[in-house]
Amino acid sequence: xxxxxxxxxxxxxxxxxxxxxxxxxxxxxxxxxxxxxxxxxxxxxxxxxxxxxxxxxxxxxxxxxxxxxxxxxxxxxxxxxxxxxxxxxxxxxxxxxxxxxxxxxxxxxxxxxxxxxxxxxxxxxxxxxxxxxxxxxxxxxxxxxxxxxxxxxxxxxxxx
Amino acid sequence: xxxxxxxxxxxxxxxxxxxxxxxxxxxxxxxxxxxxxxxxxxxxxxxxxxxxxxxxxxxxxxxxxxxxxxxxxxxxxxxxxxxxxxxxxxxxxxxxxxxxxxxxxxxxxxxxxxxxxxxxxxxxxxxxxxxxxxxxxxxxxxxxxxxxxxxxxxxxxxxxxxxxxxxxxxxxxxxxxxxxxxxxxxxxxxxxxxxxxxxxxxxxxxxxxxxxxxxxxxxxxxxxxxxxxxxxxxxxxxxxxxxxxxxxxxxxxxxxxxxxxxxxxxxxxxxxxxxxxxxxxxxxxxxxxxxxxxxxxxxxxxxxxxxxxxxxxxxxxxxxxxxxxxxxxxxxxxxxxxxxxxxxxxxxxxxxxxxxxxxxxxxxxxxxxxxxxxxxxxxxxxxxxxxxxxxxxxxxxxxxxxxxxxxxxxxxxxxxxxxxxxxxxxxxxxxxxxxxxxxxxxxxxxxxxxxxxxxxxxxxxxxxxxxxxxxxxxxxxxxxxxxxxxxxxxxxxxxxxxxxxxxxxxxxxxxxxxxxxxxxxxxxxxxxxxxxxxxxxxxxxxxxxxxxxxxxxxx
Lengths: 160, 555
Prior knowledge:
The structure holds 2 protein chains of 2 kinds.
Chain A lengths: L8 E5 L3 H14 L3 E5 L2 H10 L4 E5 L7 H11 L5 E5 L4 H12 L2 E4 L4 H46 L1
Parallel strand pairs in A: 1-2, 1-3, 3-4, 4-5
Chain B lengths: L10 H14 L3 E6 L4 E4 L1 H7 L3 H4 L10 H14 L2 E8 L5 E12 L5 E10 L1 H21 L7 H14 L6 E8 L6 E6 L6 E4 L2 H13 L3 E3 L2 H4 L5 H4 L7 E7 L2 E7 L7 H82 L1 H6 L1 H35 L7 E3 L1 H16 L3 E6 L6 E3 L1 H18 L4 E10 L2 E8 L6 H4 L19 H11 L3 E7 L3 E9 L2 H10 L1
Parallel strand pairs in B: 13-15
Antiparallel strand pairs in B: 1-2, 1-5, 3-4, 4-5, 6-7, 6-11, 7-8, 9-10, 10-11, 12-14, 15-16, 16-18, 17-18
Helix pairs in contact in B: 5-6, 5-10, 10-12, 12-13, 13-14, 14-16
C-alpha cells in the first residue's frame, strides 16, 4: 500500500469561476489531493492526456462542450478514471441517462453539500485505487504465472 | 271548318266578341276617354278596386289612386305616351293595394287620341312578401351584428321598423332573454317602452312564466288580456299603455313579445311574421353564444399559455440562481471549516494572543456572526429556489403520486412575501394519503386560491389550510378571514371573465381555470362565503384517479 501516501490528482472543470474556486478551496482545505481546475474542457483534455489523473469532476452545462461529451472523451483517453458530473435540477434527467450511456461514477446535484461531495470523491478515488491495485495484482499474478511456466519448462527440460 | 277571323264578321259581332274577351280577362282592364275619365271597365277591374262602372264613369283614376302614383302615371304618359310600372291604389273600402299597370293611348288614323286603355294586375301579395322578407332581413342583419347585450337596443329598433313597414298594428315589442348559466335562471327584458332599456326582471314569477312559454315552443297569443290574463300581467303591461293583446313567440334564448292596444289585434299573417323573426333571433343568439364561447376559450388559452410561460420563467430563474447559490453555499461551508482550523491553530500555537488579544477576539466574533448570517441567508435562498422549481415541476406532465402538503408548502413559500407580516397561516394538516395528480397544475390552483385569500384580507387576518380524507376523496380547504363574496357574485366567480378586481389586478380567469384544472383531476371545487366573515374554497380530489385513468387507457 505504498500509493496511499501518494497524493491523488483530481481534475475539476466548470465554466463558472466561482464554482471552480468553491470546489477547489474546499478540497484544498480538507484533503491532500492535487487539485487542477479548468474553465475550458478542451484544456482539461490536454492535461488529462499528458498526466497521471485519478478522478475527473465536470459541470454539465458549459458553452464549449457539455459535461457528458467531455466526460465521454475522458473515458476514451483514460477509461479507468472515475468520472463525476455536477448538474442543475433541470438537467438531472439527462445526467441520469448519461450515467448509463457514458458510464459515470456519480452525479452531484447543485447546490451540493460539501461533506457529500467529499465522500463521493473519496469513494471514487478508493474505487480507482482498488482497480489500480487489482490491475497490479493481476499483472503480478500473470508475471508469476509466466515465471512459473518458465521454471516448469526448465524442470521438464532438466528431467527429460 | 276554315278559321274565321273577327274582322271578317260584321262590326256588331266583332264588338260583342271583344267585350266577351274583356269580360273573362283575369287582368283588370279599363278604358278612359281622351280626357282621362272612365268609360268602361271589366269585371276583374271591378273586383280589384271594388267600384262598379256606374260609380266610376265620369271620374278619373285620381279617385282611387295614390296621389304620387297618379302624378307619376300622368307625367310618364305625357312624356312618353305610355306607362308601365308599379302603382299604389286604394280599394273602395280603403285598403291599400299594389298594382302592376300598363297604360297606353288608342289613336285614330290622324293620330288623335280616341281613348286610353289600362291593364292592371294585383301584386299586393308579392309586394307584402317582399316587404316581409326585407323586414326579416333587416332584423337578421341587426341580430348578426350584435356583439353583446348592449346591441339589443339596435336589434329592437330593427324589429320595430320591420313591424312598421309591414303595417302590423303593435303598440310595443320586446325581447325576454333567459340566462340559465347560473344556478337560478335570470331574465333580461328589453322593450320599446318609453324607458327603453334592459330591465332585469326581478320577479321570479315573470321569469318562470317566460321560461314556461319558451319551453312550450309554440307562440302564446293572449288575444284579450281583460278576459285572458292567465299570468296576471295586466297591471305590469298596462303601466305604460292600455295593452289588450300580447303574443309571446319563443326562440332559443327566451321570447319575442309583441303587444297591441286592440284586443285580437294581430292577424294570422302577423303571427307568421313574428315566428319568422323568432327563428332569426334564435340563429343570432346562438351565434352570439358560440362567439362568446370562442372568446372565452381563447381567453382561457391565453391565460393557460401565460401560466405555462410563467412556469418556464420560474424554472429558468430557479436554474440560473442555482449555480451561484451552490457556489456560495459550498464556499461558505469551506469558510466555516477554514475559520475553525484557523481558530484551532491560533489557540494551539498562540494561546496567549488567542485569549488576551481583544482585537483578535473581536475579529473572530465578527467572522462567526458573518457566517451565521450568510448561512441563514443561503439556506433561505436555497429553500426558495427549491420551492420555485418544485412549484413549476415542468418535467411532470403525467399523473404522479405526491403529498399535497408539499405542494401547499411550496406554494406558501411563493406567496410568503405578502403574507408574513400581516396574515397568520393556520395549518390543520390531516392524515391524507399521497394522491395521483398533475402537481404543477394543482399548485396553480392553490396559488390562485391563496392569492385571492390574501387579497381578500384587508390588513391583518388569518388563512387556514385544512386537509382531510373524506371517503375516497381528499379535501383541501383554504379559508380566509377576508371580506367575503356577495351572494350575487358567488354563483358567477367560476365563470370566465368575471372579476370584481380593478383592471390590472385580476383577469377574471383565475378561478375558471382552477375549476378546469380540478375537473381535469375528476374532482370539484366548492366555495362557501359570507360577507364580512370570509371565504372558504374546498378543492376535492378523488383518490381513484390513477386507477380510472389506467382503465380508460385499456378500454
